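HOLO CASE FILE
Compound: flavin-adenine dinucleotide
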Amino acid sequence: MGHLSNETDFFAVLEDRRWLAPGILEFRLRRPEGFAFIPGQFLRFMMDGYQREYTMLSCPEAQTIDFCIAVAAGGRFSTEIQQARIGSRFQVSGPLGHFVYQGAGNPAVFVATGTGVAPFVAFCRSGVARALLLHGVHHADGLIYRNLLVAAVKPYIVCIRRPATIPEDGIEIYAGRVTDYLKSELAPGTYDFYLCGRRDMIRDATAVIDGRFGDSRLFIENYG
Ligand SMILES: Cc1cc2nc3c(=O)[nH]c(=O)nc-3n(C[C@H](O)[C@H](O)[C@H](O)COP(=O)(O)OP(=O)(O)OC[C@H]3O[C@@H](n4cnc5c(N)ncnc54)[C@H](O)[C@@H]3O)c2cc1C
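Model generated. Tokens follow.
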């Protein structure tokens, strides 16, 4: 897919940073002149002695390239991005990745856990709306970009094991994991599934999809 790979290395300046929710930080780099990407792609941060990948949330035309990170206690990049001074330069490589919207085909089902919602935020910002979105979170706080997603996709179903704390305006709530929803709620059919999140969800959801929706297409972004 040659059109997706015009990867380059460059430096980008940290322009802003804010807490979206407890434990979830959004950070923005100034978009370098001429930098282009397709919604759903990610950048690789070339740090001193290690590398980390983050999915771009912003639309390609925006002046900043935005990301969100679930801050891991003791995590290397988590710590560095919290401490970095505004104006710091980061060496990055990209754009990278093939987790991009494939166009209207089978009904689309977007499945995210936590900050795995990032590529779907980027899809929505670029006008992709015909999808069912399942967002799995531990707490109501994890419903990042809720207003954008409520306005952009229908249905937008929040999967949470203790739903009592969530105000229902505009969203549907399912008391269980995203994989439980796929197992027992989603009607039989042929879909285009897009899965993004940590490896346990990807593994469990893939097993359900293979078992129940065998003719479907499956696109995966595994956060590890
Ligand atoms: C293609 C791609 C795109 C990605 N995009 C994003 C993104 O947009 N947003 C994002 O938040 N992450 C994203 N990730 C994951 C990200 O690259 C890092 O792995 C993550 O942020 C942890 O990095 P760290 O250096 O802070 O922690 P590390 O030093 O790598 O990890 C510290 C410890 O915490 C654990 N850990 C790390 N993160 C979590 C977590 N969220 N929940 C539970 N345990 C955790 C690790 O397994 C490890 O044991 C992406 C990964 C890939 C491969």
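CASE NOTES: The mean pLDDT is 94. Residues 199-212 form the longest helix (14 residues).
CLOSED: yes
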